[in-house]
Specification:
By secondary structure, the protein is mainly α. It has a domain of 77 residues. Helix content is 88%, strand content 0%. Helix 1 runs antiparallel to helix 2, helix 1 packs parallel to helix 3 and helix 2 packs antiparallel against helix 3. The longest helix is centred in the C-terminal third of the chain and has 57 residues. The termini are far apart.
Length: 113
C-alpha cells in the first residue's frame, strides 16, 4: 500500500510539474486532461494495489484517465469557443441595430423618410 501511495504521489507531482511548464493560462482541454490523469492514477493505483501491482495500475490508469479527460476537455473547449463566437455575432448585430436606429433618427429629423 505504501508503494501505491508513493506511485500515485509521484505521478501527481509529475503531472503538476508538466502542467506548470505550459505558457499562458491552462485551457479547458488541459484541465480535463490533468483531472483525468490524476483521477485515473488514483483509481489505477488503488486497483493495482488490490492485485499487488500498484505502479502498473497507476500508470495504466493515468494513461487511460488522461485520454478520457483530454477528449472530454476538448469537447468542452469546442463548445466554449462556439459560445464565444455566438456572443461576438450577437454583439455585432446589436451594434448594427444601434447604428441603423441612429441613422433612422437622423432621417426622421431631416424629414427625408
Amino acid at each position: 500500500m505504501k508503494n501505491a501511495i508513493k506511485s500515485i504521489s509521484g505521478l501527481a507531482l509529475a503531472a503538476t510539474l508538466l502542467a506548470g511548464c505550459a505558457g499562458g493560462s491552462i485551457t479547458t482541454r488541459e484541465k480535463g486532461l490533468g483531472i483525468g490523469a490524476l483521477g485515473g492514477a488514483t483509481a489505477g493505483g488503488l486497483i493495482g494495489a488490490a492485485v499487488r501491482r500498484p505502479a502498473a495500475g497507476a500508470i495504466i490508469g493515468t494513461v487511460l484517465g488522461a485520454g478520457a479527460g483530454g477528449l472530454i476537455g476538448d469537447q468542452m473547449q469546442g463548445r466554449e469557443i462556439q459560445g464565444n463566437e455566438h456572443d461576438q455575432a450577437i454583439q455585432r448585430n446589436e451594434q448594427e441595430i444601434l447604428r441603423q436606429r441612429r441613422e433612422l433618427e437622423d432621417l426622421k429629423q431631416r424629414r427625408e423618410y
